[in-house]
Amino acid sequence: MRHREENTIKSAAFINVRKIAALDIVFHGPRFILAEFALGMVVCAALGLKSLHRPTHSPLVISIGCLLLWVAPDPIHMG
Asked: What sign results for the dihedral spanned by CA atoms 16, 18, 21, 25?
């Protein structure tokens, strides 16, 4: 009985990303989702470039800039 309760707790703590994405598409529509993705891509790229073009470059700022540029996908090679 205790093993069953532990499995229930573990499965309740797991977030099902597919269900969340499906609900997002149902309530907001695919155009909104694509616009949200595009905005996130542009903002990540802009912040990454801005952090690398600062006059002082600490290792933390360089790491954050590289991370943001890595997160922002390349629009030319997407699809």
From this structure: negative
Interatomic CA distance for residues 65 and 46, integer angstroms: 9
User: For 35-77, what is each residue's pLDDT tens digit?
Assistant: 988 898 899 999 989 888 877 778 888 888 899 888 887 766 6
- What are the residue boundaries of the structural domains of the chain, listed by start? 2-71
Tell me the pTM. 0.61
DSSP 21-76: HHHHHHHH-HHHHHHHHHHHHHHHHHHHHHHHTSSS--HHHHHHHHHHHHHS--ST
Question: How many other CB atoms sit within 10 Å of the CB of residue 58?
Answer: 9
